[in-house]
Every structure is written in structure tokens, then in C-alpha cells.
């Protein structure tokens, strides 16, 4: 039998490696930004076109590369960060595997201009599919300028798996925020389709957080700081009053590297125990500094996971530190030992003894409980028209008649719907009973009504008497702006966009003024989820988001008419059995299934 194992060609091996390093445009952004930081840059500029699919360009003022290093940087396993395996446990840089540039060059058109400070001329290199197509000397500023064009141009199948521009932009902004939060000493800027999204100057940590997430974030932050022999900790947590229903601003940095750690997240949640409403999540920006030998960062290709030598100790310190900060800044409830001045004994009573005289008791010697006139005057000041005692009592026949009427009413109500625990509706059907989830059912009703109003009927908009201005972060403003035309098609009218706010002068008829902020925030949260790009319809996403925001919630009390109306509207829908997110809206229980519950 002939040999079947063979070495892969370099271009195939590079494409396979690219599958690990580059999942989407955001992966390229992360690698390029981290390379600029490792090059000691003080200012980094990120330029995007079409959510990075057409262009990702990073310009820095770092130390640059020599001609030899520039050419060698595109080779596999070429790095300046490590020289031996032991160096993996003494990492002080970002990238160290040496596959990023080679992987990117295998699936895109890459153009690099770089120059060191000691050189008069720099190097200009163009690479297409791992092959160098151009290399010359060039006059260029000190630093590095890398442009990645036409990502996945030679792997169309991978390009088809990318999401919509809105979703891919969201992922890029996430990476940009993580890198810029880790390095407040570096200035960053981000331009997307010639629009400036961020322009962040070098500053301290608090100002960096406010610059990224908006001025309103400043009042939410509570400082956190702790120094121990094994760990140094600093950062901020948001006050419990500003917690969110979905996980939002939650950032862990270990040695200036963003990491994801469910274990550490649990420690933060434990510190907030008893301070948050059910289902709410805290926001935090926490920076941990530990000895490099006590962690392992190379356990995941993206290096976003980490292992500690002593996780339990880190957990305990983190939880205790946050609890202390919440109490120190009067965010958490603490025991109040302050005396109440009203309870103090006056100074002039200091040497006085208790009064020797007994309290006086006054009685009415003329009081007679058997005197009818007196009794009526004392005990029954609110008299009926007739003064007879019989009017104060109801006959036995009348009581029986009232009980019978009450029983009949309950029997009639039993044939209708019944609300259970302010969450479910129970209704009787021929084969048994049906249990309906009131919130999910209302979402289905609103979802189909919204789609019908935007696709079949003419869209109606209500003009606001006074335009309202809503504050968002720069990233959220960019997301709303990309959906501006779709939002206008469903009834929104925008007046002005700024870097941190949007002014709205008209809304869809179904959305009240008090719900506008909630609806838009819910829409932005849903955009953060990966929405399939194949046949992606923004109206579906909006309909899902709006229906979830506007639907009645668990805990709402519904009148009998409201219950019946919801049930009737649900079963008039095209797909009444599932809500827009795919969950069941109701469950039926047949008589046979009910009988089985009582069989031994």
C-alpha cells in the first residue's frame, strides 16, 4: 500500500492557521492593535470600511521595523516576543505565537509601510495570499501603517459566514474598547466609513472609561483598590442602582490583558449579593496585576482565558475588596451606630431622680354600659336612618342568598381564564386545559402586529410635542446611525445625531414616549447577539426587540377582559405556539394527562 501522509503546502497550512487566528474582522483588529501596543506606540488610529470586510487599517507611531524584520514578520512562527518555552510563563507582551501576520496575509491583501526612528527610509511591502507581490524602500513616518483589504477574498465560504455589517461592527468596537481600556496611557481613534466614532486622548483610567461609555458613566463608578503580596487590584464597579438586566460593561484585565473568567465573575456577583434585583447584572472594570509565573494565559487560541495558581485566594480577595468598597462609599447598607439626639437625656436632668408622685387616674362615675342612650352615643356615632338595633344585623336568609350569588359568580368566572401567580393564564378547552405564558404570548401578538403594520399597512408615526434627547455611548450611537434608515421606515423620526446623544422627534404609534429609551436599549442589546446574515431582515430584528420591550411583563395583573383579549389575539396569530425568540407560548394538558397525575 502506498504512503498516504504528506506535508501540506505552505499556503494551505497558512489558511488552516488563519482559521484559528482570524474568525472575523474583529480578530484582525485585535491582532493589529496589540502589535502596535507591543511596538510602544503612544497614538493608534484604526480605520474601517464596510465593518472591516473591505478595509482594516491601523496606523501607529511605534518603533517600527527594519526591512528584514518587516519581511520576516509575515513568516509562520516568527516572533520577537519569546525565544524559549520558559518565556511563555514570563509574558509581558500581547502577541507571542508569531502566527497573526502570516495568517492574515494568507486570506487578505496586506500592505505595510514601516520605518524605524534611526532610518531615513522605510519599507513598503504588499502581500496577496501569502505571496510577496511588491517590496521597495519608501519615505514614510516613523512607526507602522498596515492595511488589510478584501478579507477572505480567496475563501468565499468563510466570507459567507460573516454576519451583517452592524453585527461585525459591534464585534470590532468590542475589541477596540477592550484594548483601549487596558491602556489609558495611549491615545486611540476609530473611523468607520469616514465617520469618526472615537477620538480618545491619553488620560487616567476613570477618564478613559467615561470617554468610551459616555459622561453619564462618571456618576455610576465606585473605586476599587487593594494591594496584597500575591495580587494588586484596582478599577471601578458600578453602583447597584445602575445594574442592567443583561450583561453589559463587564471587564476583567489581568496584567493589562482582557480576559473572560466565569469564576471571577461569580466573585463579583457574590460581592453584590442582596444589592441587586433578581435577574440584574453588575457592571465593573477591574484590573488585576499578578506575578507572570502564577498565571497561564496560553490555554486558548485567542488568549482570553486564564488560569491562576491559587484561584480560591484570588476569589476571596476580589469578593472582599468589592464588598469593602461598596460599604466604604455608602453604597451597601451598613450598621448605623450614630446616636439619635432626640433620645438623649437633657443635661439638667442629670442629677434629678424619678418623680415620687403617682400618675393620676380619672374615671367617669356616671358611666353606665347598660344605658342605651349612652352606649349609642359612645360606640355608634354613625347611625342609620332608623334607630332600631335590628338594622345592624342581616338575617340568615339574606346571608344564604349572598353566599349563593357569590358561588354562582365564581362558577361563571371558572369558565373563563384564570391568572396564576401573575405569570400564566389558565383556560379551559374541550380536551382539558391550556396554560399560557402571558409575557411570551403578548410578544407573539405584538410581533405579528408590528410586521403587518410595517409590511402590509401604511406606517404611521406620531410627532412628539417636544423632541427628546437620549444619551448613548459613541459605539451605540454608531449602531443606531447604521440602522437609521430602517428605523425611519418603521416610524422613527430623528432630528440630530451627536457623538453621545440622539434627538428623536417622532416615534411609531405603538411606542409611547416613556418607552422610547427602553425600546432602543433593548434593540442595541439584541444587535449584540449574532444574527444570521443569510436573508437577514432588519425589520424582523426590530419586531422581535420591540415586542419584547413592549410586552406585558411577569408580575403584571390583568383584568378578566385583558386576559380574554390576550388569549383571543394569541390564537388569531399565524404562529401562536411560539414567541418571536422560539420559546413556547402555551402548553396543553389533556384530561388523560390530568387523570394520570392522580394515579398511584
Description:
By secondary structure, the chain is an alpha+beta fold. The chain has 3 domains: 10-200, Heat Shock Protein 90 (2-Layer Sandwich), CATH 3.30.565.10; 205-328, Ribosomal Protein S5, domain 2 (2-Layer Sandwich); 432-530 and 537-586, 2-Layer Sandwich (Ribosomal Protein S8, Chain: A, domain 1). Helices cover 34% and strands 22% of the residues. The protein is built from 18 helices and 22 strands. It has helices spanning 10-21, 25-38, 67-72, 100-106, 156-160, 165-182, 205-213, 262-271, 311-328, 372-379, 396-414, 438-455, 474-482, 484-489, 516-528, 538-550, 560-570, 591-596; strands at residues 43-49, 55-60, 109-115, 122-128, 131-138, 143-149, 187-192, 195-200, 221-227, 232-238, 250-254, 257-259, 284-289, 295-296, 307-308, 418-420, 424-429, 432-437, 461-471, 493-497, 501-508, 586-590. The strands form 5 sheets. Strands 5-4-3-6-2-1-7-8 form an 8-stranded mixed β-sheet. Strand 20 and strand 21 form a beta hairpin. Helix 1 packs across helix 4, helix 8 runs parallel beside helix 9 and helix 12 (438-455) crosses helix 16. It is globular, with a radius of gyration of 34 Å. Residues 334-341, 374-386, 406-415 and 530-535 have low confidence and may be disordered.
